[in-house]
Amino acid sequence: MDNLKAKLLAGAAALTSISVPAYAQDQGASGETSARNAPIVVTAQRREENVQDVPIAVSAFTADALEQRGVSDVSQLSGVAPNVTLDGGTPFSGSSAVLSAYIRGIGANDFAFNIDPGVGIYLDGVYLARTVGANQDLLDVERVEVLRGPQGTLFGRNTIGGAVNIVTRAPGDEFRVRGDFTTGSFNRIRVRGTVDLPITDGVAMSITGSFHDRDGYLERIPYDGPGAALAGNSLQYTDFLANDYETANDEGDTHEWSIRSRLDYDNGGRFRASFSGDYSKSDNNQIANRVIATTEFVPGAFAGLAANNVPGTGLDVVTGASGFLFAGLYNFCIGASPADLAARNAANLCGPRHNVGGYDTAPPLADPVLGGVNFPGNPAPDLLPYDSRFITQDIDQSYATGNNYARLENWGVSATLEFDLTDDILVKSITAYRRIDWDVGMDLDNSPLAILHTSFGMDQEQFSQEIQLQGSAFDGDVNFVFGGFYFTESGSMNDFVTFSDALLQVFGPNDLDTENYAAFGQIDWRATDWLGFTVGGRYTHESKDFIGRQQDLSGFNYDLFNCLPPGPVCAAALGFPDPNQPFRYYVSGTQTKSFNNFSPRVSVQLYPVDDVMFYGTWSRGYKTGGWTTRLSNPLPTAPDFNEEEAESFEIGIKSTLFDRLMTLNMAVFTTEYTGIQLNFQQGVSPTIQNAGTARIRGAEFEVSIVPNEVFRLDASVGFTDAEYTNVLPQSVVAANPFQAGTFAGADLPKAPTFSLNISPSVTLPIGELGTLTMSADYTHTSSLWNDTERTLLLRRQSVDMLNASVTFRPPSEQWSITVGGTNLFDERYIITGQAQIAGGQIYGTYSRPAEWFARVGFEF
Predict the structure, then answer these.
(1) Domain region containing 91
(2) For labelling, which of 69, 136, 458, 505 has a CA lying 20 to 30 Å from the CA of 77?
(3) Is the pLDDT of residue 574 over 80?
(4) Is residue 237, in this structure, part of any structural domain at all?
């Protein structure tokens, strides 16, 4: 493999070397080939303008550029834009439709309803509020813009790291049909098609559909290791509470379809309108998951030696380590003798699990007693212990037998209306409604046991209304945009998590309502031919209401403290907030928080010569706070976290050189990042905290060179130095055998130091037969940490990713044939994962292996 990699890199270097003369061809927004870098029109500042005129670090990709690079969803933009890390999937989300998005070291890596993203995703100007469903299929798009740095002035809250702006293609004014059929590895079948339907003069419609089916790349196999004969004695996954029940023999598959329609009205008059609707549905298995290590041997405080315990309980408060954590407790229970149980006050801990918890539909457990089932003479069927025997040698195999599904319905409608008040001023309205219905169930322990099973269900709906006043004055020297924004969101989420054969069963139904309104404005003034200024700001008010009902269905605390039966008396003694709801961890009532923020932006531009702009920008952005919901102990108050903020300084250059034969853009930046919201593992509970402050510095370089009609080269380089300058005491994680830790001077998660992308393409005429286009896309990304605590086994090592394809087109260009491969170096790295040390395992999702594909496209 190393020899193949060396040869392929040498070939890429050879291709790059012929680009030095820099005279170019480009496939611009229209898809037409020209001997110039065709300008790309973007709306990064809420109005249409050439990307080279925007004093913002923004990467814009046309539909042709996305197809050439093999980019079909948002996560695949990772690497092709500098200092951008986009992953399909977050820890225990179970679905690649969940987007983990980071730009310049700022983002969010969770899917919970109470946690907002740090990178805003926009679809035709409509904000997508949840990370669930944000990994959009880039179906029939005109372009995608990746804006780097805080975008709070024009895009609002939760764009503290940046924004991804997806713009769909407007329907054409002539009848047209185009599409493609793709097959490939893992029995892949993908069919896409779009139809442009002119209705009358000024009215046109497009309908686009997609179907994608592909087998999973991780196989679930029967366990055949030590003690395999005992596997059938364990309870089945259907014996435990879950959001739903469904399993399958593989993981990481694709079974989804989508449809989008858009109707545009523009008769050349003062009024224009665009109406769109989209619907997507997926019925997949969970994302591929593999246990990397088990941690049942790590000591803990449960069932400690009696001399160390709170008198009469099973909790060690003297050493905190003479007992077990959850997986170790399960192993102790099944092998304990009556004397062992008595010596540790653990008879109730290992005894019947209550399984009531105020949840009326809880099914009874077939055999709830664990204590001593493997002890000689106990007639109960022996059970398998949980340990490293369940770590498979092949990263694409698992012994899991539990829940295995990820289902999503994601749809929305929007209307964009424009009216020209004068020749220079227009008013624009964007109205949208969207809804998500999501269900996922995962077996995360790699075994036929129920050591860590999760399932979630989310229902979310949102409505947004934006009004903009755009225009220019003084012969175009002044351009402005002013506006107002209203957003409301509501929904609920159910969490079910089973630990260690139901020693702990967490049930977390939560409700959230959000209301947000904002006013914003920006003025761009070209004072002279060589000097320009930009001033803008956004004021935002947001209020949130939250109801948390987190509870333990097994009554673990009551067994731990030997305070039985669960009820008002013991609930009060153990600190449960509502004695009348003795299993409820979370305080009763509605929690309320409100946020107010002003995010300004100031920029100065210098134009020393035509087609060259130097700029300096100061900007701020913020992300709202909320509540931590994943409790595994009762608390007297609702644990919350506050907003986070970023202040960024950036200087850059945008240049179009050699009569548009080359574009060269560079930027350097520094960001002060405060109130950082990070996900920390507290026992078995991933909880959100404001961790402290960080300083992020970096640089970006992007170049596009088209020396002739044969060759094109796009390349980018990103550098990021992102480290904590201060970590609050409650958030410090000391270095330990499993983790590098979190402290001042440590690196932020999901922030590689260096990234490089090189994308050459060669188009060769082959006589009268047509053309042959050879394309490659190579990305190198240095190592990064996948989690807050910087777990050593979850660290993503440096990655060299190579995709390549060859496309044949006849002179008519009405059809094409493409063959190619993705991940040709077969790099297998960890996309996401969790160190669930208290639960008993460290697990992660590996990237897809090397794959081939063949595609037939058509257009007429």
Answers:
(1) 2-295+390-550+585-859
(2) 458
(3) yes
(4) yes
> Percent of the chain at pLDDT above 90?
84
For residues 843 and 835, is the Cβ–Cβ distance under 8 A?
no
For 747, which DSSP code?
Answer: B
C-alpha closest to that of 630 among 730, 504, 497: 497
- pLDDT of 33 > 60? The answer is no
Amino acid making up residue 789: E
The CATH number of the domain holding residue 635 is: 2.40.170.20
Query: Is the confidence at residue 16, as pLDDT, over 50?
Result: no
Query: What is the per-residue pLDDT across 222-250, written as a single tens digit (0 to 9) for each?
Result: 999 999 999 999 988 998 889 999 999 99
User: Average pLDDT, stretch 147-170?
Assistant: 94
- Closest by alpha carbon to 501, among 374, 319, 396, 379? 374
Which of 507, 504, 480 has the alpha carbon at shortest distance from 493? 507
> How is residue 53 written in tokens?
């005129």
In this structure, what DSSP letter does residue 113 have? T
Exposure string of 480-503, with b = 16+ CB inside 10 Å and e = fewer, is bbbbebebebebebbbbbbbbbbb
Distance of CA 108 to the CA centre of its chain: 7
Q: What tens digit of pLDDT does each residue of 624-676 get?
A: 999 998 888 999 999 999 999 999 999 999 999 998 899 999 999 999 999 99
Domain count, the chain: 1
Residue 400 forms part of a structural domain? yes
HEC secondary structure over 784-838: ECCCCCCEHHHCECCEEEEEEEEEEECCCCCEEEEEEEECCCCCCCEEEEEEECC
Task: Collect all residues with Cβ–Cβ distance below 8 Å to 825 and sequence separation of at least 6.
Answer: 1, 4, 5, 8, 800, 801, 802, 850
The pTM score is 0.93
Q: Return the amino acid letter for 7.
A: K
Contact (CB, 8 A) for 649 and 617? yes
Q: Residue 608 carries which DSSP code?
A: S
Please check whether residue 694 lies inside any domain of the structure.
yes
* Cα dihedral 565, 568, 569, 570 in deg (nearest 10): 50
In a domain, 97, yes or no: yes
